Amino acid sequence: MFIILLFSTMPFIGVMVTNYLFPVYLADVLETSGSMYGIQSMIYAIGAVTAGMIVPFIAAKWGVGKTIIYCMVIYTAAISVILFANIPLYLALMFFIAIGNSGTRVARNTFMMDQIPNEIIGRVDGLFRSIGLLLRIVLLAIFTGMVSVGLIIYCFAILSTLLVVSSLLVILFWKKGIKSAGIQTDQYVTVA
């Protein structure tokens, strides 16, 4: 469960890191104006709201585990393809990045609330937030140095690799660890 909860935070960490990378990518690689960043943010917001509305229904139908995995795969695929995107495709990918990140967070938080006892959930969540913050600091330090020498493409390649590995680990440990531990993963998710 620790591995699943740890690596399923990677889409959120990816979003935090790409908040630094996307403006540079838009200006230096795609050579667009600043207004494109505003359009990107608007499309991301539409995707996040869409995920907030549909993910509880998907989780109720397929189960929380499959929802986490599918949303992580959507996010990973969108980030991996972004290197080869022109401006219209880049904007379309923002929608899927938002669905992948937001969907993973909703399903992951639902899983945590269902499976972790109330008396320790604060400490568990604090642990994962601390690890996430450390990962963000390390990645931003590395990427800041790389961007300053014009290696933004490699930043996305590293991020994509980390996300692929994270997705594979979540899939592997979900099927292996959670099922053998006897944790019920296909519980109904309440739609608020």
TrEMBL record:
Highest taxon in the source lineage: Bacteria
Major facilitator superfamily (MFS) profile domain span: 1-178
Keywords attached to this entry: Cell membrane, Membrane, Transmembrane, Transmembrane helix, Transport
Membrane topology: Multi-pass membrane protein
Transmembrane segments annotated in the record for this chain: 5-22, 42-60, 151-174
A Pfam family the protein falls into: MFS_1
Keyword Cell membrane in record: yes
Main location: membrane
Protein's cellular compartments: Cell membrane
Protein name as catalogued: Major facilitator superfamily (MFS) profile domain-containing protein
